[in-house]
Amino acid sequence: xxxxxxxxxxxxxxxxxxxxxxxxxxxxxxxxxxxxxxxxxxxxxxxxxxxxxxxxxxxxxxxxxxxxxxxxxxxxxxxxxxxxxxxxxxxxxxxxxxxxxxxxxxxxxxxxxxxxxxxxxxxxxxxxxxxxxxxxxxxxxxxxxxxxxxxxxxxxxxxxxxxxxxxxxxxxxxxxxxxxxxxxxxxxxxxxxxxxxxxxxxxxxxxxxxxxxxxxxxxxxxxxxxxxxxxxxxxxxxxxxxxxxxxxxxxxxxxxxxxxxxxxxxxxxxxxxxxxxxxxxxxxxxxxxxxxxxxxxxxxxxxxxxxxxxxxxxxxxxxxxxxxxxxxxxxxxxxxxxxxx
Length: 341
Ligand code: ADE
Ligand code: ZN
Fold this sequence. Notes:
The protein has 341 residues and is α/β, with parallel strands linked by helices. The protein has 17 helices and eight strands. It has helices at 6-14, 30-40, 49-54, 61-71, 78-94, 106-110, 116-134, 150-160, 185-193, 208-218, 233-241, 250-255, 267-272, 284-287, 291-301, 306-318, 324-339; strands at residues 17-23, 97-104, 137-145, 167-173, 197-202, 222-225, 245-248, 276-279.
């Protein structure tokens, strides 16, 4: 595959973009994990950050989740969550991310005895600082773990009630196989009644039916991943017609073996089908790249044109939960950066 021209690659990197699919726990770089482990006296089963990175040889989603949930044990205090989110926001800012809608997994932390408010207060402090010092806009999406029960999701929502102004929306993540979205119908209905946005991981390892299930049973506004929609032509037609955003994470899909190779990733087919896809990083500390690296690698390995790249960037901004005026302002800037020779 030919390399993108330097100017196209540079324009993509410099363009304003939105990161709509990043798990804050998945932005925990091994160096920070070691610093927090030592600060908190929490053991890590690796000799060094390099050894930790070497352990990232995943065979599927669950093999990744086992390592990811274990590493999250180093996060204990408000300061830890602030440090994690601040490191992420600085890194995102250097990729010209102007808007980040960040997932967090409160149940991973409350199960270890970390209070819900410790997590949200720490993350929110970093978000406030990001707005003040970097001019980056960010919001939090609270994910329910789908391997747990709906009752436990309701308990988490109960804990979140006092912090609703800190939350942009709710999501659904963790192991998709055997955990269909329909199990979370009632808790998502309650969240939508509370005015929260709703998104869900679907069609990553799970079948196309999981995407329809998330739309029908959970009323979600965006699908995270969604790559397996291509297995169902009627579903593709529906997603195109209803302009449902799909937050695609190509490096993640390769590392978790959703796709065999990046060169075989369905992203160009998705765009050519008219699907509203955008590119994101999922768990950048584990999968080898933040959003610009995902875009760069896609342009290098896939037959993506400048028009495809523009569409991906614009879709990221337009699929965000920002208000229309802010989106228009960012799209104007995108046009200046991307379309001016
Ligand atoms: N949690 C963190 N990354 C995830 C992914 N790719 N799929 C499901 N749950 C996740
Ligand atoms: Zn994800």
